[in-house]
């Protein structure tokens, strides 16, 4: 996947408010986090927060988009020589692992798993769209080079995102004395490679 950026963008003043919201969620969970508490932690008035977000779901959407987009940016490689399929497999596997280890994601799944359900059952989120778009672009380039199988790059990308969902959210349910997390990660890599190669 193509790197999202090479230079740090100008700091958005709202980042400090999102940082405060992140701290709240890590400390007490989503249900007990309020815009008032976010303002208190950020050291600003409630009206300052309300000017940016009318409610907590809107703020959470922006926080999750920032968190997951930043995570993806850190796990994708710059384009370069090498096998396209191997690069895609590595990037998806690294992203899955990074999500499973991300403290905000883990905290949300532990305390407030219902926050994730809309993105699994009802609609795609901005971060899912970002990942699918990055994958689509790389798959199309791989097809042009003859390294990726024929088919709609967008459909293939969305299929990869769907497959990754299970490895992000449910892999731990399949780990026991007979199958380790490393075994499942190897299976993920195998599935991804078989799904993409001609």
Question: In short, what is this structure?
Answer:
By secondary structure, the protein is mainly alpha-helical.
Textual characterization of the structure:
It contains ten helices and no strands. The protein is 68% helix and 0% strand. The two termini are 19 Å apart. The chain has helices spanning 14-28, 35-42, 46-52, 56-75, 84-101, 103-111, 117-121, 126-144, 153-169, 181-196. The radius of gyration is 19 Å and the shape is globular. The chain is mainly alpha-helical and 198 residues long.
Secondary-structure blueprint of this entry?
Blueprint: H1 14-28, H2 35-42, H3 46-52, H4 56-75, H5 84-101, H6 103-111, H7 117-121, H8 126-144, H9 153-169, H10 181-196
Helix pairs in contact: 1-2, 1-4, 2-3, 4-5, 4-8, 5-9, 5-10, 8-9, 9-10
Which structural class fits the helix and strand makeup? mainly alpha
Q: How much strand? A: under 5%
* Helix content, binned percent: 55-70%
How many angstroms does the end-to-end distance come to? Answer: 19 Å
CATH topology of the largest domain: Tetracycline Repressor, domain 2
Mean pLDDT: 91
Number of DSSP strand runs? 0
Output the CATH class name of the largest domain: Mainly Alpha
Could you say how many structural domains there are in total? 2
So, CATH architecture of the largest domain? Answer: Orthogonal Bundle
The radius of gyration over CA amounts to: 19 Å
Shape: globular
**Number of helical runs?**
10
User: Which sequence of SSEs, written as H and E, runs from N to C?
Assistant: HHHHHHHHHH
Largest sheet: none
Low-confidence segments: 2-7
